[in-house]
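Box S2. Input/output pair 1.
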Amino acid sequence: QGILTLRPGPGGGILVSKPSVDMLAYSLSVYLRLNDVPFVEILRARMAIEPVLVRDAARYGSDEDFDEMEQSIDRLEKSGGDSDVVYKENRVFHNAIARAASNPVLELFWSTISILASGEGAGLKYTERNLTHIIGAHRRILEACRKRDSEAAHRLMVDHLGELDVLLRTRFKDRLEEPTRITRKESGKLS
């Protein structure tokens, strides 16, 4: 898995590397693929984890966390619909929520699920209308977090993910039951 490396020669030995989220996502994707777990189950896991994260982000997040979320929204607004920017800033926003929740275990689960649930590999493209909805949802979620209204943040995230669920079920319904795709060991997808 790349955690242990043998370095030969003088000064060599066994090197221990810190495992990355990419390595975990790769291992999980192989497990899910070999056990015929469909992609839709990854989305269900995301829908279970992320509302809990945002509830905790509203409780425990710092002003710096919320500023990072706001800067991401601002960049998203200026993206002009550029798919690469939209994917990146969507990840930045949701990763900021995970960090702000101050729960390293759930943050790790989120980071892993976010790699597996990314719409990039499935060819998901956002329309201008989708982007407007995303920006509005992100702003409302951020506002609830800044007000420390954890229940509103939770509800807003459930609504936001529900919109994504509808989008995926209408535009990609044929792919939802496909087996999970195996990710690359180093996806480079995390910001």
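Box S3. Input/output pair 2.
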Amino acid sequence: VSQVNDLSGNNNNATQATAASMPLWISNGQNGLGVTRFNGTNNYVSVADSSSLNLTDFTVSAWINATTLGPGNWRYVLNKGNYVVGKDDIALTIRNMKVAGLTANASYTENTGSGTAVSTSQWHLVTLTYDGSNLKGYLDGVNQWTTPDTRNPTTSGQPLTIGTGTASGSYYFFSGYIDDILIYNTALSTN
């Protein structure tokens, strides 16, 4: 796949950084339509920075079907920034086989994963919300953790990447399928 189209009307289409980083497009995803498969080694897509992606309050979610998850390893589902204090906006990850996430500005708030483990070879809905007071992680619609946070994410100008992210100068790639990414400029509730 060379481009994944944004259906929101904001024209935040995801494109390939290089041919070598191109994930595979599989015709039967979670919703019966196509899905993108990431190899866990070098596959990702990138969305150019846009004012519609510079969020303060937010909900980000995606359906994932991981083929491998290692304990202690970050597996980035999506990342807006590059995990450098002051340059990271939002990261939705799997760490220690659990939903994890962070927001950042001059400092950062992070939850490194707690709650129910994400199983491999099964579809899961992973979600991260921020309402100006709390960062929350959800697995399959059930709140796994809440971390107090009153610092709004910065608007770093960094692209949004799907299937990878960086931490301490290293890239961490997702291995498996990512489908139906949704990004809202508000913290949705479970209601």
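Caption for Box S3: The chain is about 0% helix and 50% strand. The two ends are 35 Å apart (CA to CA).
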